Amino acid sequence: MNILIIGDIYSKSGRDVLKKHLNNIVAKNNIDFVVANAENISHGKGINKNHYNFLKQLKVDVITSGNHIFKVKETQEFIIETNDLLRPLNMYESLPGKGTVLFEKNGFKIRITNLLGTTFMDHANSPFEVLDKLLENDNSDIHIVDFHAEASAEKIAFAWNYDGKISALVGTHTHVQTADERILPKGTAFITDIGMTGPINSIIGANPDEVIYKEKTGLPTKFIPSENAGKLQAVIIRFENKKAKSIERIQVI
């Protein structure tokens, strides 16, 4: 079982590079299941119905998200109609949508869970408590967690805590791909951050000018998505007998 997990898709540049390369990556690497984080796919924040459909047309199996999942108002309405668009499980329970989903593919029960970190982020319930509760009754063969968090230390600590209890933990949110992919001692595949599928010449997706202005002056500024050529960043996790055997970073321009 080979699973492709795509880093945060950012605006039009991210959509374009994904459309250009996804089919080839899937074919070349014998990919069985595709997960993509798409909380920034619509103009840099959120996901609208049109872009949800775009990902389904590209045969993305599960779409994860993060703190920007409800930035587009219509998402609150159509997320309840889907079984494959996740919002973080440890957000307020009253919010619409699911935070975890179980699929069957090629004889495997695959669970994808989406969680938010709590350091330097908007309020969320404890991801430890929420995942502990979920694991009490989980019967999946493969369980992958997209941990959408700001602090590297929080992601690493979370991964070590669940080493051997989940199949893989991949970090998202920072839009910068880290070079620390590995299999932890008890068998969990891990990377601090998958990176971003979006514009190369940008500051984590946005035009540099506006970001620099805010950093220099401290004044509020609207960030504008860069429309420069994109890069696709992702990881491929290969499983044998339900256990992660390798995790590989990829970057395609």
From TrEMBL:
Fe cation 2 binds at E39, N67, H148, H173. GO terms for molecular function: 2',3'-cyclic-nucleotide 3'-phosphodiesterase activity; metal ion binding. The keyword Nucleotidyltransferase does not apply. Fe cation 1 binds at D8, E39, N40, H175. The active site is at H68 (proton donor). InterPro entries: Metallo-depent_PP-like (IPR029052), YmdB-like (IPR005235). Keywords: Metal-binding. CDD domains: MPP_DR1281. This is TIGR00282 family metallophosphoesterase. It comes from Spiroplasma tabanidicola. The lineage of its organism: Bacteria, Bacillati, Mycoplasmatota, Mollicutes, Entomoplasmatales.
